[in-house]
Automatic annotation (TrEMBL):
InterPro entries: DegT/StrS_aminotransferase, PyrdxlP-dep_Trfase, PyrdxlP-dep_Trfase_major, PyrdxlP-dep_Trfase_small. The modification N6-(pyridoxal phosphate)lysine is found at K182. It comes from Cohnella abietis. Keywords: Aminotransferase, Pyridoxal phosphate, Transferase. This is Aminotransferase DegT.
């Protein structure tokens, strides 16, 4: 079976982890500091704080930005559920926007519509879905115009950019995940990127129980630290990230050129965006998705649906009072494409003949 994801762990990572294990310093130490520094240098701006996961990075970002209980944050209905959960854990209220049909990213029209209809919006939390930038010109303009905080969920977009500038550096803050299916991994882990150095300091306190100095605690914080073991993996992975992304982009370019099928819409890289293809997500038209998935699996190719449900229709959100009454009607595009999307393998572990075989199999569907 050709897998949908495959983390790339080399001898370098194994040696780095083994050095940490032998050192006796397992919890946050100099590897974490080094990883944070390297990541900030990679992005070229901002202040980085490593955390235990992408979800905790998002939550800490919102806490450090001062989101208060019940404050409304506009986010996309079509993402991994952690995006919205982080808002709720930070005390905020997610307001779900629809997506753009071509990119599947949050729709700027939908954001503007919500701002028009509702008062008390405090922030916009965008997700660069599947590795492609949202329209950061338009979204930054909306945030400035309405005096809203802007946060980027970059969990699928390490190294992706908008008009040459790395994602995670447009908003007041960004958050990354290093889960094994992402463009780089630390096993579990995350990174907060803050534009403001003082807020980065606050974030670093919050992930360590709100510590001020030894034995003195200024805030009621959390233990959301990254371990030295994970940081050591992260340092190695970050060095390879550009290579990882270029292979993903080569695989995607091959699919773009070769996949030809009247029932299939391929993803589009929009002008200005450098896509890093955390997922290569097709849309299968005419109610043929189930048949497509069965067919691919029969041919030994693992595919996966990201995402079969919108976040607000998940059981855990249906029973909350976050949802507006007519939210379903507002999510017209998301509610349509969730029946069409399917992601195919695009990762580094694919051999050349496997990429070719995936194309041949798809074109014969
Ligand atoms: C993976 C992911 C997260 C959560 O990251 P974890 O490290 O799994 O906590 C958040 N948002 C998006 C869009 C993701 O893909």
């Amino acid at each position: 079976m050709i897998k949908i994801a495959q983390p790339q762990i080399g001898q370098e990572e194994i040696d780095a982890v083994s050095a940490v294990l032998k050192s006796g310093q397992l919890a946050s130490g100099h590897n974490v500091l080094q990883f944070q520094k390297n990541f900030a240098e990679y992005l070229d701006q901002g202040f980085c704080i490593a955390t235990s996961s992408g979800t905790t990075a998002l939550e800490i970002t919102l806490r450090a930005l001062g989101i208060k209980k019940g404050e409304k944050i506009i986010t996309t209905a079509f993402s991994f559920i952690a995006t919205a959960n982080a808002i709720v854990h930070a005390g905020g209220t997610p307001i779900f926007a629809d997506v753009d049909e071509t990119t599947m990213n949050i729709s700027t029209d939908s954001i503007e519509q919500i701002i028009l209809e509702q008062s008390g919006i405090k922030a916009i939390l965008v997700v660069h879905l599947f590795g492609q930038s949202c329209d950061m010109d338009k979204i930054s303009e909306i945030a400035i115009k309405h005096n809203l905080l802007l946060i980027e969920d970059c969990a699928q977009a390490h190294g992706a950019s908008w008009k040459g500038r790395k994602l995670g550096t447009f908003g007041d803050a960004g958050a990354f995940s290093f889960y094994p299916t992402k463009n780089m991994t630390t096993a579990e882990g995350g990174m907060v990127v803050m534009k403001d150095e003082k807020l980065a300091k606050l974030a670093s306190q919050l992930i360590q129980h709100g510590i001020k100095e030894r034995n003195q605690f200024e805030y009621i914080g959390y233990n959301y630290r990254l371990s030295e073991i994970s940081a050591a993996i992260g340092i190695c992975q970050l060095k390879k990230l550009d290579h990882f992304n270029s292979v993903r982009r080569e695989n995607a370019a091959y699919y773009e050129e070769k996949i030809k099928h009247s029932d299939i819409i391929k993803p589009i890289e929009v002008p200005g965006a450098k896509h890093v293809y955390n997922q290569y997500t097709l849309r299968i038209l005419n109610d043929k998705r189930d048949a497509f998935i069965n067919y691919m699996n029969r041919n030994g190719i693992d595919v996966s649906i990201y995402y079969p449900y919108t976040i607000p229709e998940q059981l855990c959100y249906r029973s909350t009072d976050f949802l507006e009454k007519d939210y379903e009607n507002k999510l017209e595009v998301a509610n349509r494409i969730k029946h069409e999307v399917v992601s195919i393998p695009v990762h580094l572990g694919l051999m050349e003949d496997e990429v070719e075989r995936i194309v041949t199999v798809i074109n014969q569907f």
